[in-house]
Amino acid sequence: MVDAIVFPLLEQLISFSAGEATQQVKLVKGVEQDVEKLTSHLQTIHAVASDAEQRQVKEKSVRLWLGRLKDVSYDIED
Questions:
Q1: Which of 3, 42, 44, 63 could cross-link 56 (Cys pair, CB 3.0–4.6 Å)?
Q2: How many percent of the chain have pLDDT more than 70?
Q3: Locate the Disease resistance N-terminal domain: which residues (predicted)?
């Protein structure tokens, strides 16, 4: 009689545990992809900002754009 109660409970626990483990693996894998994507975007931003920093000396529009970017970065920080 105990087997009739224990085995179904164990099966449910195993099923639940397997589902939770699968979900955790998906979360970890998703984070890794997000970090790679963010790294790529930040590298692109760095390259553009470096180029703009050099060009701001001669180009007023680039200087204005960098000023606005600086303001936005402060707003994001706040």
A1: 63
A2: 90
A3: 6-78
